[in-house]
Structure formats: C-alpha cells, structure tokens
Write a structure and sequence with these properties.
alpha/beta; Rossmann fold; 8 strands
Amino acid sequence: MKKLSIVLVIVIMLLLAGCTSQKTPSADTLDIVTSFYPIYIATANIVEGAEGITLTNLTSTEVGCLHDYQLTTANLMILEKSDILVINGGGMESFIQKVVDNCKNLKIIDSSEGILEEHEEEHEEHEGEHDHGENAHIWVSISLYEKQVENICQELMKLDEKNAASYRQNTDTYLAKLDVLKAEMHEALDNIESRNIVTFHEAFEFFAEEFDLNVVGVVEREPGTYPSAGELAEIIATINNTEAKAIFVEPQYSRTAADTIARETGVPIYTLDPVVSGALEKDAYEKIMRENLKNLVEALGD
C-alpha cells in the first residue's frame, strides 16, 4: 500500500511538471476544457460549428457541484494537453489552483470575472439583503448566467480571432434563447403569492433573488451531510413559522433528510435541479430550467 502511494505521488508530480512544458503546437486545433457541467453547456453553445475546436468537460457529469472535489490523474492529463481552461470562478474551482499555478501555458477564462462584484454593488443599498458571502452558484440565475456566457465569448474572441465572428453569432443566438426562457419564468412566477421555500442546500440564493422567492431554510448546510437533530428541529420550526409551502430536493443528492422534515411538517417535496449534471446537450440548461419552472408552479401555485 505504501509503495502504491509513492507511485501515485510520482505520477502526479510528473503530470504537474508536464503542465509547464509547451503543448505540441497545431495550427488546426484548439483544445478547450471546461471545469464542470454548466460551464460546458455555456461553452458548447458558443463554440458550436467553430473551425478546429475540440471541447472537453474536465469532470464527470455525475459529479454535480464541485464541493470537495479532488482532481484525478486523468484530469491532470486533460489539462496538460489543453490550450484553454474555462472555469466558473468565484472560488468554485479552488481544487485546481495548484494545477493552474503549474500549467503556465494554459490560458484561463474565468466566466465570473466582475460579475459577483458588480452584482453586490448593484444591491448594496439593501443592506444585508443580498449578502451572498462566498456563494459562487451564479449560473442558477439566468441573468447572471447570461453574463457568464458573454464573458466566455469575449475571452474566446480574443484568444481565437479566426473564429471570433462565429463565437459572436453563436453567443447572440444563445442569449436570445435565454432571454425567452427568462421571460417565460418571470411570467409564470412573478404573480405567485406564496414565495417561501426550503431548498436542499445553499445553491439557489441567486435564483431565488432573480424570481423574488424567499429561501427560509436549507435542508443540508453541507451537501451530503445529514443534518444534526438540532438542525432538523430548527428547519422544522422555520417551516412551521413561515408557512413554507414546499421543500425542494436536488436530484444529485439523497432526499432522506428532506423526507424526515416532510413527515414532521406535512409540507410536500419537489425537485429543483441546480444544473450541475445531465446530458451534454446544447439546450440542457433550458430544459432543466423549464422543468424547474414546472415544479415551482406546481409547488407554489394556488
């Protein structure tokens, strides 16, 4: 076992050293890698049909949100061979910082660049109301996701001028589709009277803000960690006091704790998907959000 650990360390060190070497140049291909699912979907829409592009998602689509994710040797090998890495940013991919520091030739596109700062400044007049702390789940807000898409487009246009016109056209097309989606969701949700919800974990703050929903509690502060007896009691009391109409779970995690809360409160369970796993299809974000809309209307509608 000790020998195996030593071999693994040596392999990782070699891979990290390889990141500092120059990738074999090719005038015909540009290898782009994305950090995880929502960033892949955004980038796939932007690069669709562009000449000489290969697009790879770094993490498995079953991984979900990147809480405590540890890089594998396969991840390191992908990074070593790539030209551009597109990330969510905002601290979501802190696990790759060491690799980023060693991959000197890898161009990094941070899709969150300026978004969180600008967003907080826009809402600073509401003191404390929109303090998101270190929450980086910005893609669940359609408006903020659109800004991420635009950021990725702008940086790709700078790094790959040959395909700049294609990136711009694709981005405009995708943003128009997202505008339609956003309008549909506002039309369905803006006049709903019951707005108090309990979410599975703290992934939906930006989503709730966009659609004026009140997240009065979360089932699991740390995803995958069953709440303590005290935390369960607190959530149950909050639901009873706020008359929350729905408990929302995420398809990526066990609903055991939510089932316990539902039995104690009589509040039904529905699903809200944070768009962190699924099919690698260009319209996946829109499909998942429309399914979320259907569940919200069913849960909160009179």
